[in-house]
Specification:
heterodimer; A: mainly alpha; two-stranded antiparallel ribbon; 2 strands; 76% helix; B: alpha/beta; 6-stranded mixed sheet; 4-stranded antiparallel sheet; 9 helices
């Protein structure tokens, strides 16, 4: 193992420990809810990151995969009594398969046209589910209550088990991305993002790698859909396919900094509490002040730090280093 | 011993015939110069051979196998690589990472790919820029990087599209000797070039295109005296300068 690897592994362990310790301070149900939302959107942001941050296909329709995943596991559990865990696996696979089929025509779209396409996809799927009687149409499905526990993936007394489940999902996703970034796949994704023509000229099968990126991203997003379905115990088109989910996913990743592993986690850790707290404190006034404050944060970020929090950290790090070198040089001259 | 054989290649853009029934071949250890006025179809020939454009007729065989209208990545995998007229690198990645993308074609593991990429950088004299982001490189460095990216894919045929345009005489000299080294190592090269002083001394054969038609092919010394080539492209001044 090289020094870099040891340092990164130490960071991951430290990150996991911090994650495990959070619940000590989060004792109320509301603060636990915020924690759950942070890990959920961190995973969603990372999934988006694979597709958009690395492979360069900006999606604003992740809700399509999210809702699909939620519905797959819910339908399986309501109609066939399948365990939600198996349902989550099925949701991941089904969403990935769906995304591969959809991805074939979509991967031919470039840049903003891809993004527009994904918006349309999100809206279309929602309409389909709103009119599909078998899955409850606009009223959706209620997941029947069961005894709480990991077997039923339902926890009524405390939200913490949900948090730990989400954290495990997050750590798995991060581990996957860590390996991906250092492998052929990660390099090929980035090459496609930077310049598709150069990539294919160097032997990269761009269609295949784009489809892999879309499928992996969608699969993880679908599993998150199952997670939220089990968290709220009902699925409904307006809730699961809501366009704001797609936007929030992209926001979290861009706010934190896309194209690197830690960005979306940072973005979620900052944006989700702001979003939930302003909603809880100011949302009831009916004036929309909560959304204004939330929006102002995003505007400030876009104006002053378009590369996200990670870009900001890098810039500050570089300027500190430069200052230290200047000081070192001055000292040399003095002596 | 590898050989690229092109027969009757034709490409139309609407009513315009950009490449009209062009045939040629190139084999290992040989530099084929491709010259002609702007708009003659040189780059279009490259694009058709490497799969970036679909040709409208003809045949392209590499080592006896048809690569006519295959996908760019499949053609690259068979051993035909190219650079672009307007230099194209992966801007946001480091020079080493750029070359590694090419090296992954034959080496799936990252460590092996990195080793191969460092070799390729060394070969074009770019080792000291390995960690620099490609966007920050100078134009000649980017052109060298592009060649390194191609070399990393272990090509048997390398096509260079104006890789010496915009370089100073010293840089042209360096680039020429690099190209000759590649030929001597057994590669087949097709070089599109406008800088006559660069291409004429190193080319084993020269082919001239004008308005999509091949008007001449032969040794460099014959080409500069060919009246059709002089009137279409080189001009009287160049012909006189060569004679002196």
């Amino acid at each position: 193992m090289q020094r870099d690897d040891i340092r990164n592994l130490a960071m991951l362990v430290a990150f996991a420990i911090i994650g495990l310790l959070f619940p000590i301070v989060a004792t109320t149900r509301f603060s636990q809810h915020i924690l759950v939302m942070v890990v959920l959107y961190a995973v969603l942001g990372e999934a988006w990151n694979i597709m958009a941050g690395y492979a360069g296909m900006v999606s604003i329709g992740q809700a399509a995969f999210f809702g699909l995943g939620a519905y797959v596991s819910s339908v399986l559990s309501v109609k066939y009594g399948v365990s939600p865990w198996l349902g989550m696996l099925c949701a991941g696979l089904a969403t990935a398969a769906f995304a591969t089929v959809i991805g074939l025509p979509f991967s031919r779209l470039r840049g903003r046209y891809f993004a527009i396409g994904t918006i349309a996809l999100g809206q279309m799927i929602k309409v389909v589910f709103e009119n599909w009687q078998w899955v409850g149409a606009a009223t959706g499905l209620m997941i029947p209550l069961a005894n709480q526990g990991f077997a039923s993936f339902q926890f009524h007394a405390s939200k913490l088990p949900y948090y730990y489940t989400g954290l495990a999902l997050l750590l798995l996703t991060l581990a996957f991305m860590y390996i991906m970034e250092r492998s052929k796949m990660g390099y090929y994704f980035k090459a496609i993002r930077e310049n598709e023509d150069v990539a294919s000229g160097l032997g990269v099968n761009r269609t295949a790698y784009k489809l892999i990126a879309i499928a992996v991203s969608a699969g993880i997003t679908g599993m998150c859909g199952t997670f939220l379905a089990q968290y709220s115990l009902y699925v409904e088109p307006e809730y699961m396919f809501n366009h704001s989910i797609s936007v929030t996913i992209a926001l979290v990743a861009v706010f934190g900094g896309s194209g690197n592993i830690i960005g979306p986690v940072l973005g979620s850790a900052i944006l989700m509490p702001i979003s939930e707290l302003t909603r809880a404190w100011l949302g009831s006034s009916g004036t929309g002040i909560d959304l204004m404050i939330y929006g102002a944060f995003i505007v400030l970020m876009c104006v002053y730090e378009p590369e996200g929090l990670v870009g900001m950290a890098r810039r500050i790090g570089a300027s500190i280093k430069a200052q230290r070198e200047r000081r070192g040089a001055a000292r040399c001259q003095n002596s | 011993m590898s050989e690229l054989v092109v027969k009757g290649l034709t490409k139309k853009f609407g009513g315009l015939i950009a490449v009209n029934d062009v045939s040629f071949s190139v084999k290992s250890g040989e530099i084929l110069g491709l010259i002609g006025p702007n708009g003659a179809g040189k780059t279009t020939v490259f694009n058709c051979l490497t799969g970036f454009l679909k040709a409208d007729g003809g045949s392209v065989e590499f080592n006896g196998r048809s690569i006519y209208n295959c996908s760019p990545n499949a053609i690259c995998a068979l051993g035909v690589a190219r650079t672009f007229q307007v230099v194209q690198v992966l801007q946001g990645m480091s020079a080493l990472e750029n070359v590694m993308v090419g090296a992954y074609l034959r080496h799936s593991r990252t460590a092996a790919s990195r080793r191969r990429a460092l070799e390729a950088l060394e070969r074009v004299g770019m080792s000291r820029f390995a960690d620099m982001r490609a966007v920050n490189l100078t134009l000649p460095a980017k052109k060298r990087l592009e060649v390194a990216m191609c070399l990393a894919t272990d090509p048997q045929v390398l096509m260079l599209d104006e890789s010496m345009a915009g370089l100073t005489p010293t840089e042209i000299h360096d680039a020429s000797s690099m190209i000759c080294e590649l030929r001597d190592a057994g590669m087949a090269l097709i070089v599109v070039e406008h800088v006559m002083e660069a291409i004429m001394p190193i080319a084993d054969r020269v082919m001239v295109l004008d308005s999509g038609i091949k008007i001449a092919e032969g040794l460099p010394a014959e080409i500069v005296r060919d009246p059709r080539v002089v009137s279409a492209y080189l001009g009287d001044k160049y012909a006189k300068r060569v004679k002196c």
